[in-house]
Design a protein that fits this description.
CATH class: Alpha Beta
CATH topology: Rossmann fold
Distance between the termini: 35 Å
Largest sheet: 5 strands, parallel
Number of domains: 1
CATH superfamily: Response regulator
Shape: globular
CATH architecture: 3-Layer(aba) Sandwich
Number of helices: 5
Oligomer: single chain
Number of strands: 5
Strand order of the largest sheet: 2-1-3-4-5
Order of helices and strands: EHEHEHEHEH
Bound molecules: calcium ion
Helix content: 40-55%
Strand content: 5-15%
Structural class: alpha/beta
Length: 134
């Protein structure tokens, strides 16, 4: 899922991703993003910070607090350390500063997908006590 309110930017990213054989849904604001995430299954979320209704940080926090574990890549507009820290603190896995090179976006998506492909999904799993069997 791509969350971006600027039609030109959203169109550019979605087109590029579709050319790489990604299926893309575009959400235009924070509430729409949360709705889509509730009704669809995604492998990855590209989340712009500057969004109407609810900004990217709020969306990210809500997703994470509801147990949503899919990788989130934040798009930050400014190259400010505070923005990047805020993004990572709210539960994003990675960030990219606008304007970015599309090749870098693709490389980061591939890296995030590799992480998701692992069966444990990065979840800490306690060893089962011996008397429990499945
Ligand atoms: Ca935006």
């Amino acid at each position: 899922m791509l969350v971006e309110d600027e039609p030109r930017v959203a169109g550019f990213i979605a087109k590029g991703l579709r050319e790489q054989a990604y299926a893309v849904d575009v959400a235009r604001d924070g509430e729409e993003a949360l709705y889509y995430a509730a009704v669809n299954q995604y492998d990855l979320v590209i989340l712009d910070v500057m969004l109407p209704v609810k900004d990217g940080y709020a969306v990210c926090r809500e997703l994470r607090s509801s147990g949503f574990r899919i990788p989130i890549l934040m798009l930050t507009a400014r190259d400010a350390v505070d923005d990047r820290v805020a993004g990572l603190d709210c539960g994003a896995d990675d960030y990219l500063t606008k304007p970015f090179d599309f090749k870098e976006l693709l490389a980061r998506l591939r890296a995030l997908s590799r992480r998701t492909a692992q069966p444990s999904r990065g979840r800490y799993q306690r060893q089962q006590p011996k008397h429990q069997s499945h």
